[in-house]
């Protein structure tokens, strides 16, 4: 309990010190050396859901995957990938949502679902800490989505005529709204996601990050419920859609070999 309280106080201090800047390597090093992170509380919440959250089936995640995630060690390192039971390529968000609804019997839709999915994603991802990312493209759907993700990474769209590559390759190291732009493909940054976003005081999965970026692109058509590359809209795309998973697959495949260290810490 003392550790959790101290983590909360320390994260609050860091929030005010980094609100206009990304956390420095020194600040992140201090957190790691002291063995505390604001995300620890959320990950522990995910661990509790894993063992105790029950739905209509009377089962928990542990009923299928073992105590303390014994059967999930290393699973996150290989995601996104194709799952035969849901007949699609899934990132960690999609996989957890499907498990909750299909096997646990919990309504995981909307914001209520994110309440469970994000902490669970954080917990499950930690079970692969220290392991190298090893995303393979064996199934035809994995190959198709990888190519789609690559296309979307470079596709210039929206009112701002931006692409992922404009920010994260061409403008790498420069600033947008005082924030330095990283190079997630080149620097294999996926190894540090899910990440605790200090300025939002939330744990974010990569789906959260990608949706935020696409809102800046102005291209999701809420009336059609899909991307429209000819119109400009200011709205985040829904969770769990193919385009988001495709971008994740492209980025995480590029991070192959990098050792997973989650949850990360970002501004």
UniProtKB/TrEMBL annotation:
Name all Cytochrome c domain ranges: 41-128
Q: What catalytic activity is recorded?
A: S-sulfanyl-L-cysteinyl-[SoxY protein] + thiosulfate + 2 Fe(III)-[cytochrome c] = S-(2-sulfodisulfanyl)-L-cysteinyl-[SoxY protein] + 2 Fe(II)-[cytochrome c] + 2 H(+); L-cysteinyl-[SoxY protein] + thiosulfate + 2 Fe(III)-[cytochrome c] = S-sulfosulfanyl-L-cysteinyl-[SoxY protein] + 2 Fe(II)-[cytochrome c] + 2 H(+)
Entry annotation: catalytic residues: 213
Single GO BP term: sulfur oxidation
Q: Name one GO molecular function term.
A: electron transfer activity
GO cellular component entries: cytochrome complex; periplasmic space
Top-level EC class as recorded in UniProt: transferase
**Which InterPro entries does the record associate with it?**
Cyt_c-like_dom (IPR009056), Cyt_c-like_dom_sf (IPR036909), SoxA (IPR025710)
Any idea which positions bind heme c 1? 61, 64-65, 99
Query: Is S-adenosyl-L-methionine one of the keywords?
Result: no
Q: Where in the cell is it found?
A: Periplasm
Residue positions binding heme c 2: 164, 167-168, 213
Q: Which cofactor does it need?
A: heme
Q: Which UniProt keywords apply?
A: Electron transport, Heme, Iron, Metal-binding, Periplasm, Signal, Transferase, Transport
Task: Give one Pfam family.
Answer: SoxA-TsdA_cyt-c
Give its E.C. classification number: 2.8.5.2
User: Superkingdom, according to UniProt?
Assistant: Bacteria
Comment on bound cofactor: Binds 2 heme groups per subunit.
Q: Does the keyword Membrane apply?
A: no
User: What NCBIfam families has UniProt attached to this entry?
Assistant: thiosulf_SoxA
Quaternary structure note: Heterodimer of SoxA and SoxX.
Q: Could you tell me what this protein is called?
A: SoxAX cytochrome complex subunit A
**Organism per entry:** Aquifex aeolicus (strain VF5)
